[in-house]
Each structure stands twice: as structure tokens, then as C-alpha cells.
Specification:
mainly alpha, single chain, flat
Length: about 80
């Protein structure tokens, strides 16, 4: 029997990485409501950062800056 190998693309964009995440969610049979929630949350992230950027551009500092951006530019609460 032939082994299955994974192809790993090392230069994924943020959008491509998110698309793969959603694909995995569907494989894990998450509800449509859960997937829809993830997609809605990404709207703000895409306002903050260019979705064409490589996923490697997202660092801890990016996340910290995004949290501050959310607090200043949206009505998201701390739990979100």
C-alpha cells in the first residue's frame, strides 16, 4: 500500500492559512455556526492586516498590536 504524504507549502499567505484552517474545521465536522463565527472574526483581522501577507509575518507583536487595535477601533470586549 502506498503511503500518503502531506504537501507542505512553506510560504502560505494569511488567507491561505485561514482557508486551510476552515478546511480542517469542516473535516472535524464542526458546526456551520462555529465556522461562520471564525469567518466573522477574520473580517476585523483582515481590516488590520493584509490577508496576502505571508503567515510568517504574524508574530507575537502582531497579535499584541491587533489586540490594541481591536480595543481602539471596535466594540469587541476583552473576552472576545
Amino acid at each position: 500500500m502506498e503511503k500518503i504524504t502531506m504537501s507542505k507549502k512553506s510560504n502560505l499567505s494569511i488567507q491561505e492559512a485561514f482557508d486551510l484552517f476552515i478546511r480542517k474545521c469542516k473535516i472535524k465536522n464542526l458546526t456551520g455556526l462555529s465556522i461562520s463565527s471564525y469567518e466573522k472574526k477574520m473580517v476585523h483581522f483582515y481590516e488590520f492586516i493584509n490577508k496576502s501577507e505571508p503567515i510568517t509575518a504574524v508574530t507575537k507583536d502582531t497579535v499584541d498590536d491587533y489586540i490594541l487595535w481591536l480595543r481602539e477601533n471596535t466594540e469587541a470586549n476583552d473576552i472576545t
